Amino acid sequence: MRKQQSSSSWSFCSTKCFQCMPSWSSSKPSSLEKQEERDGIVLSDSETKKRKPGGWKAMPFILGNETFERLATFGLMANFMVYLTRELHMEQVFAVNIINLWWGVTNVAPLVGAFISDAYVGRFRTIAFASFASFLGMVTVTLTSWMPQLHPPRCTQQELNLGPCIGPTKAQLGILLMGLGFVSIGTGGIRPCSIPFGVDQFDPTTDEGKKGINSFFNLYYTTFTVILLLAQTIVVYIQDSISWTIGFGIPTLCMFFSIIFFFIGAKIYVHVKAEGSPCSGILQVFSAAYRKRQIKLPVDSEVVAIFYDPPLNDIVLTKLPLTNHYRFLNKAAIIEEDELKPDGTCVNQWRLCSIQQVEEVKCLIRIIPIWAAGIISLTPITQQGTFPVSQALKMDRHLGPHFQIPAGSIGVISLITIGLWLPFYDRFIVPALRKITKHEGGITLLQRIGIGIIFSILSMVVAGLIERERRASAILHPQPLGVAPMSVMWLAPQLILMGFCEVFNIIGQIEFFNSQFPEHMRSIGNALVSCSFAGASYLNSLLVTIVHHVTNKHGRPDWLTNDINVGRLDYFYFLIAGMGVLNMIYFIYCARQYCYRGSSLQKEDKPYVDVELSSIKA
Q: What are 76-88's pLDDT values in tens digits?
């Protein structure tokens, strides 16, 4: 059912790189004859193949840029809840909403960055511009902790006894949000482009290039894990125990040097022409189907339709046959009079699309219900940087007589869980399951996602039970700061379960989207995962706002009040768990209805005539 194209295809890259778009092959054969400008702008494909790729010489500059961008972002996220509540004196609900909204924008921004890069300016220019934006954002956030004019005055003990401290002014809050906005812009440009730009430096047609790509991915994700650990340990400790200015200043300084290194390597890089975004093709299918909505599709042998089916270009590796799913979209590929040029190409791509384009859109539509189920299941994970940090602040965080665990570092438990479980799962669990199920992955990808959803529900149930015990302990043994005589390690069970949720749910989603999209559309799959996190962040913010207002009645403090010893954070956790149960029922229904790509295709008895135009174009 699949037709493989040229041997120089990106099958290797596409399998490994979720954000990667093919770069060494042109979408049009005529581009081999085009001449483009050199040194820092673009090379044509024919020149690129003759030129020795940047290879490993370019890696320190590319990986350094990506690494420090993540250090800046995650260095902010890991301990930002503490900064907003302790240093800027924000109310807990307001601080949570700021974090959720910012994190949501940060996860949506790569979609915009990927579109601009693919369709217009290319990866080098996108990364360059985004790096300056990220640096500017980090400088702004650092200034809010350094300059007295940009943050509220320190709260005295007398003010603490009388009531809430003075919060930030509108101007101070505006400057902070401006800094976060610049960081999101930087993330939106760097994150979707760094992996494809790194892969561009290797020639995938050679064994050496393929090995280089493989090693690049391993090194990329290794540095990613190291950055997460650094952000949640060393950076958080500096911010919490030494100075917020230094804690923000270190990643800011690193971002500055990363920009210098990135431009030093400008003449080493291989610069590949922007090939266009797949988003345009998706919109073209809907446009063509709408314009041809009056056309009748064939329903019996008396009606014969001729569909546009040109030969695939070099960047498309899998030939998709016409199917009967979402048949109304098939109208976009029906050829009408005067819609083809003499060479076989279509006159207007917004009126006539190929069968391949139509089926690619169908792949996206089939996946949407599964993607939607992932939003609620990821909501517990978006909690890790907010309410668990508030819990940790009200628990005994001492390890020995002289060291106190920073509240923002508690999320390291999830990272350790992932690091220990993943190799064990791949090496022992999967082979054992493979013998039983005869499935290559041990279990199907949808089953893996479903297990992750179960873990997300369990994490919230356990979190609610532990919070109930912590609150009872704090009330039974009152202390001046409201700290419960209960070790912060009691939060480990819920964080371990969240780690399992990430292993099964998030990685399962990435693999699922990676396998269900055609190779050249897998960047969209990775974008969907990013959008899931954005949706979960926005949903979490909406829940927090609703719960805050609904439960604040009859003179009682709301569930999410600043003093969690007075509020009922455990009820909030149980609410999310209940939503997770409903979401699980929805997911099971969608999973049972889902048909994996390639398992159920077209019915051959339909009178469809696919016209291959290779002879015309030749």
A: 777 888 899 888 9
